[in-house]
Amino acid sequence: MNRATPDRRVTTVVIGAGHNGLAMSRCLSEAGIDHILLERGDVANTWRHERWDSLRLLTPNWLNRLPGYAYGREHAGDDPDGFMSMEETISFITGYARATQAPVMTRTSVISVEPAGDGYRVVTSQGTWRCRSLVLANGAFSIPKVPKVSLAVPSHIRTITPKTYKRPDQLAEGGVLVVGASASGIQLAREIHQSGRPVILATGEHVRLPRTYRGRDILWWMDATGRSDEHIDKVDDPVRARRVPSPQLIGTPDRSNMDLNTLTDTGVELAGRVCTIRDGVCQTSGDLRNLCKMADLKGSRLLRSIDDWVAEQALTRSEIAAIADAFPAGETLPPTRVPDKPRLTLNLNSGEIRTIVWATGYRPDYSWLKVPVLDHKGQLRHDGGVVRAPGMYAMGHNFMRRRKSSFIHGAEDDARDLSQHLAAYLAGGQRQAVGWP
Amino acid sequence: METATQETDIQADNGVNVAALLGARDALTDAPAGARFNWRATCDWVNGTHSHSEVKGFYGLGDEQNHKTSFSFDTDHPEIFASEDNGATPVEYVLVGLAGCLTAGVASVAQNRNIQLNAVKVTLEGSMDLQGILGIDCEVRNGFDNVNVVFDIDADASRDDIEAIVAQSQKRSAVFDIITNPTNVSVAVK
Fold it and tell me: Do residues B68 and B149 both lie within one domain?
């Protein structure tokens, strides 16, 4: 901090130049609101540095769009049903930053944000800014959430998270305990097992989704049926809806399904959720069977709701009738095969396990946010991205406004809504109506 | 909890006051300290393996509370253990606890989903290798090595809906959690 330099002024500061910040930037530009994006590293930084090598997006290419920018249109591409590698994802997002001429300040880390006057004071590694409004687009999935039980892991076991995991050859030879069976956990379990290391997958609550259903990608169905667009204020239990873990999906060139059955077929061992580690012995829960049953029931319920939608739409829409004819209703998810007696203990001192991968979710980093907008659990208090502080907004949280909010294609609608709210806030003076735009 | 559609059109009556439960859920969300409960039991040794336990008071909602009346339970072992069989074995009480908890959950979840229950019957079996408690083989655990629970439910609902109720009941069950997950237990001598 150089006190000799006066604070620079800008109407809106957007923190983060990933797809969320850039989508918001584009909408702010359209509204004529001057702004800057502060980016700790380079555009698309998380995709560059904090994900594993083999990761591909879970959304098919045709679905990848941002305001004024879509795959196969502004972004060249001829594989609409494919899934972008990290390199392609970075190219997609940096291409967007160029196309929108987003005012990004790279290599600029935010050190603190505090209320000041009728707005905020943003201290960065490259000087201080004053702004009237602020958009938190720094990623809802940036810090791995690792449970407290990890503190009891014996020191000879190497632990790693999906943020620092890159490829299997980083790991010692020998057994690996992957904790968590959401998108990251199942993908890493698969890859690590393929590398020849025995894998035990500790499985808690999970969401089972087939990659394709009735000849279409499952996300095509989520989009077509309007499920992706469902608003958070229309769901019965928003707190729970936002906590739902990422679905068991993988983007592969052959669009293969992946679930616990495909993993156990290859030799991955299923165990329950990790509960405690006592004297080097890890105890796992006996509730695995029920959690698998719940995921089976919920997955089947989703497929039946798609069938109902198809039956209804086929009456009036020929393209849906064609799907109904070509791909009959009633495909089912085979029940998840749970071992008769899943292990309840795992001795971490026996040498069987050399590495633990904590694939137990992510949380955003708000350590620099000196504004009282976090609840007692450290979660951002907001209504559909309208943060409970004047002129402050968020982007990219799980089911923030819509079911698709945390997906790349979810940024557009949220950015449009919130940029409108932001513009109205700036026009209307200092008081902010908390609630829905 | 799927509540939005049911509140306007409730037909099922399983004798569960769901509105009160959901009200409590809302109230305790805003006042988490009130959600802290302590459950208690006292036990007197009678003779041999026979003991007599009582349950009366508990703590919750920020205050001492009492059951309407005190409940008593005799525990003993059957005659094949050379005991007098004055009551169920303690491990059978564990099954009773699990059955009561899961069944209460089934009734509550069904009510919340507006599904009428006509009859619910649960059969439980916990299996155990006595080589554990008798100290014959130190690699055999003392407790159940498996618990099987079978629900027989007659309800105005599809099989999938009934299975979903039973699954949700397990997910929200205290005793299911106590049995499936480790718990820290401190035993002291006064």
Answer: no
Q: Which CATH superfamily is domain A8-142+364-427 in?
A: FAD/NAD(P)-binding domain (3.50.50.60)
B114 shares its domain with B146:
yes
Nearest CA distance, B45 vs chain A (angstrom): 32
A237 contacts on B by Cβ (under 8 Å): 1-3
- Strands A158-160 and A65-66, by their bridges, are unpaired
ipTM at complex level: 0.80
The tens digit of pLDDT for each residue in A256-311 reads 999 999 999 999 999 999 999 999 999 999 999 999 999 999 999 999 999 999 99
Partner B contacted by A294 (CB < 8 A): yes
Greatest C-alpha distance within chain A: 73
**A-contacting residues in B 23-52 (Cβ below 8 Å):** none
- Cα–Cα nearest to A108, from A128, A124, A131: A124
CA dist., res. A212 & res. A223, Å (int): 13
Dist. CA A12–CA A143, nearest whole Å: 25
Q: How many CA atoms lie within 13 A of B150 on its CB side?
A: 3
Closest CB to B1: pick one of A237, A291, A341.
Answer: A237
**A36 DSSP assignment:** E
Tokens 């907008």 sit on residue: A373
| Residue B110 amino acid letter | A
